[in-house]
Amino acid sequence: MAVKILLLSMPDSFEHMPVLSIRMPNGALTSLAGNVDPHHQIAVADLILVQRHVRITLELLMAKFKPDLVGLSVMTFQRRTAEAIMDLVRSIQSNVYIVVGGYDPSLATEAYTDPTSHRADFIVRGEGEITFRELLRAIEGQTGYDHIAGLTFRSGDIYHHNPDRKLSDLVGDEIRPPNRDCRVLSGYTEMGRQIDVIETSRGCTFDCSFCSIIEMRGRNFHKFNFDRVLADIRDAVAHGARSIFFVDDNITLNVRRFESLCQAIIDAGLNWIDYSVQAMTASIADHGETLAPLMRKAGFRYVFLGIENVLEQDLGFLKAIAKNSRRAAGRRTGNASIKAIRSLRANGMYVVGGLIVGNPKDTRKDIQANLKFARRWIDWPYIQHPTPYPGTPMTSALRQQGLINTDEVSKYDGTTAVVTCEHLSGREIEFMRWKAERWIKLRHTYALFRHDPKFIYKYGRRLLKFLFRGSTVRSFLGLESARKAFERYCAIRERERKYV
Hints:
By secondary structure, the chain is an alpha/beta fold. The chain is built from 17 helices and 19 strands.
């Protein structure tokens, strides 16, 4: 018996990703869809595409597909929205199975096992493709669930936690390619181009204190073969993509492999596409002379660099010194960020700079040093604050020090300061970031205009309105304080978090 399945990603989005500029698909859901038995009926809906119409969209989808099972992919800051969506699904169709998965259910399983709510029937923990496939087979064959590794399931008011599933090494066909045909909403975009996501590897061997990846997967690095990767790029293009983001946890962990991937893209004639990627500063700095020109030739345009912080003391707290240090003769020789940025810019690529400010020992001067660095070196800032994601070493340390100022996880979006440092309040830290980064982002619109003049001509005013929401003419004329504009911005951001 075929199971009718509706998979949902949450509508909550990050502050640094405005609706007009970028809306990426959830690659995990199409990967799940590609790995179920082919006789099942499956639909994937990325609710980020309908942020202001979530309820009506979900009602229409439930009426159209009448699913037997609804699955939700959830990050921590999306947990409250996920609970509201599960309640809505139950109110529409009380007998539907509800499955949750992703980082938050995997690392904070206890948040989804309240026996009085009866929200989730199943929790898929960790890597989900095989677990979800086996769950559907168990539902179909009514064989029970206690044999399925990586699954938590509800029996009455009791939740049972099966042993963890061993990670796939990504060799062979155990994890099959994604199924993009099952998407039922449209509008994935990056600067006016249709965007898709590609995965070439999973995992990272570093141990950054803020990172959920190693808590979910452990420290490892597994790779798909290039034939599969190139076929996946071609499939994304066949579905309309003209821009592609590589979602790998740390694609530059193996620089030689990444160089070979760039060359494979060139040889396959797929270098006319705009590519974006997350990269490690040390890898780019140490190999930039050969790697950066190859990246540009392969079509890379934006590179997200995990700079994290420019101060040694903060890199120590974040446990990110090793991945942000240059090396010579096997020894560390200083911070890698500037050399990495210079290599990328010299080859016509733009730098999205990831920084984390407001760490426990930070002073105003420390935060200003990072903001000054961002103004000087970064094209598009992705500045965040320490956030206590479930299970991470950082969370344990912050909790022990009593620095977490709220347990309201909807604010764990990275740009709401939910951690108070010893010298500054969370609100003050957030104000300093907000005040500085708007103008850095504004400066980058000139680069956008050179590359995408039609997009800026069409949406420029709306992008400016987004960047400076909360500000008024009085703000710009200096007739009221920036703090008043900031408070209005915070109120707007609070309203934006209500999706259902």
